[in-house]
Write a structure and sequence with these properties.
Layout (H helix, E strand, L loop, with lengths): L2 E3 L4 E3 L4 E3 L2 H12 L3 H11 L5 H15 L3 H6 L4 H14 L13
Helix pairs in contact: 1-3, 2-3, 3-5
């Protein structure tokens, strides 16, 4: 079972521990804060190949951080809470954790 401490950008599984650099976290946060949410998502998805666990950790951090934004902020920047869930589903499918998508329920 994986443990995620997203606020600290540390992701741990029984096999390995993944840390995101401060610069990578800052880059993702800055893009989201500027409203460049779709651009950040596209940049991260372009790097994701399904086997690179560090890239998956970046995506998880992105979705966790983005999900903390208000619905109004997301709407102003052509994004939504539903897209966060859909992105997590796509990430889970691409990385082989498709069964985890059952845990993601829309509110």
């Amino acid at each position: 079972l994986a443990a995620f401490a997203v606020g600290q950008a540390v992701f741990q599984s029984p096999e390995e521990k993944y840390s995101l650099s401060d610069s990578k976290c800052s880059q993702i946060k800055s893009m989201v804060d500027r409203g460049e949410i779709n651009e950040a998502e596209n940049m991260l998805f372009e790097k994701l190949d399904g086997t690179d666990k560090a890239s998956a950790a970046e995506m998880i951090f992105f979705y966790e951080y983005t999900s903390q934004k208000s619905s109004e902020f997301l709407k102003q920047h052509n994004y939504s809470k539903e897209e966060v869930l859909e992105g997590l589903r796509m990430l889970a499918a691409k990385t082989g954790f498709r069964h985890m998508t059952d845990l993601l329920e829309e509110s």
